[in-house]
């Protein structure tokens, strides 16, 4: 059903029923992930959003919060090719994308593809590697293709980069450049589990009682679901709401947020608007709903915007973070 043809409540009801049917695999996927990942519901939802909306995800948190485990478990639950790249200071771009190897028997150069040729690529501790290696991911993330020598190779769909990083204030890390950050659909901040969840994690580790994750989702079903996600209905009022949020981060004075103008060095790019719309649709799909409501936009806004707003030295001096700015924008911009 074309979303532009929705003209009545009956059409919307039909779309809603279709979304409910097409999203039945979400429950299976969440059940498999829950065998290994305890708590961290927000992180798992964000991983599913990236999966459904073809967006790359950056997970940030201190060591030991199951960032790598969550991504590895997701790859196991989806019947797809998975590769893990441990980013280190001595990593080279060729270690990531591959290189040309000289074959002495044939007297020819042949291509040796790197680990980026997979459906799920885990870039573990991406901020441990210098900028030239981080930039090697740019073409793959944006264009979904890799150039080695004179040949360009398309990456097989689905293709998803899931990167982890430790907080930048730790020693031995390299801040990601803004151009690379903007190519991540979501930046998810991982926090400590609750005491009850951590007790269960401790017991399962000590007793070795983690469940065995089974692949419950085929790639063809996932690719079909991605197309269905784009059919989730978004009213024009919701579109304007998304634009108001992004434009308020660029021109706060126009939205009576004068006090924020000295705190923002740059606001969200057009990718912010696009990704906020796509992520809101994916969030509605996960909730098994055929239409987007303002709460969907607000729920995912922090993860889409926090790495797209630059803060000034004045903001740092006053202890104002990107999250504080987003909160102020959401509290001020009129909700439809």
Describe the structure.
The chain is of the alpha/beta class and 336 residues long. It has one domain: Rossmann fold. Helix content is 46%, strand content 17%. The chain has 14 helices and 13 strands. The chain has helices spanning 9-22, 25-34, 41-53, 67-77, 93-97, 131-143, 178-181, 195-207, 219-229, 236-250, 270-286, 294-305, 313-317, 322-332; strands at 56-60, 78-79, 82-86, 98-103, 108-113, 120-124, 145-148, 151-154, 160-165, 184-189, 217-218, 264-266, 310-311. The strands form 5 sheets. It has a 5-stranded parallel beta sheet. A two-stranded parallel ribbon has the order 2-11. It has a two-stranded antiparallel ribbon with strand order 4-5. The protein is globular.
Order of helices and strands: HHHEHEEHEEEHEEEHEHEHHEHHEHH
CATH-scheme architecture: 3-Layer(aba) Sandwich
Spatial sequence of strands, sheet with the most strands: 3-6-9-1-10
The biggest beta sheet is recorded as:
5 strands, parallel
Gap between N and C termini, in Å? 25 Å
CATH top level assignment: Alpha Beta
- How large is the share of residues in beta strands? 15-25%
* Class per helix and strand makeup: alpha/beta
Helix count equals 14
| Relevant CATH superfamily | P-loop containing nucleotide triphosphate hydrolases
Give Rg in angstroms: 21 Å
The CATH topology: Rossmann fold
Instruction: Give the fraction of residues assigned to helices.
Output: 40-55%
Mean pLDDT: 86
Strand count: 13
The number of domains: 1
Contiguous uncertain segments of 5+ residues: 1-5
Shape: globular
Quaternary structure classification: single chain
């Amino acid at each position: 059903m074309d979303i532009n043809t929705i003209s009545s409540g009956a059409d919307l009801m039909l779309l809603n029923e279709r979304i409910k049917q097409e999203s039945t695999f979400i429950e299976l996927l969440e059940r498999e992930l829950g065998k290994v990942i305890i708590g961290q519901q927000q992180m798992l939802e964000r991983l599913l959003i990236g999966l459904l909306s073809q967006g790359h995800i950056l997970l940030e948190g201190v060591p030991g919060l199951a960032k790598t485990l969550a991504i590895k478990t997701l790859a196991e639950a989806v019947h797809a090719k998975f590769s893990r790249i441990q980013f280190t200071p001595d990593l080279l771009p060729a270690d990531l994308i591959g290189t040309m190897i000289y074959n002495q028997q044939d007297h020819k150069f042949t291509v040796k593809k790197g680990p980026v040729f997979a459906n799920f690529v885990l870039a573990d501790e991406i901020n441990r590697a210098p900028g030239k290696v981080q930039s090697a991911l740019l073409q793959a993330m944006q264009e979904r293709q890799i150039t080695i020598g004179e040949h360009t190779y398309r990456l097989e769909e689905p293709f998803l980069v899931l990167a982890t990083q430790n907080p930048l204030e730790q020693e031995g890390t390299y801040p990601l450049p803004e151009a690379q950050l903007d190519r991540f659909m979501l930046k998810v901040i991982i926090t400590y589990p609750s005491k009850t969840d951590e007790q269960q994690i401790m017991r399962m580790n000590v007793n070795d009682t983690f469940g065995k994750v089974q692949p419950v989702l085929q790639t063809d079903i996932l690719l079909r679901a991605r197309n269905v996600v784009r059919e989730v209905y978004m009213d024009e009022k919701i579109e304007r709401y998304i634009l108001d949020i992004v434009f308020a981060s660029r021109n706060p004075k126009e939205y009576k947020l004068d006090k924020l103008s000295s705190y923002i060095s740059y606001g969200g790019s057009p990718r912010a608007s696009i990704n906020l719309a796509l992520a809101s649709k994916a969030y509605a799909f996960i909730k098994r709903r055929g239409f987007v409501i303002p709460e969907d936009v607000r729920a995912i806004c922090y993860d889409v915007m926090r790495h797209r707003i630059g803060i000034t030295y004045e903001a740092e001096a006053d202890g104002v973070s990107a999250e504080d700015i987003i909160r102020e924008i959401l509290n001020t911009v009129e909700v439809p």
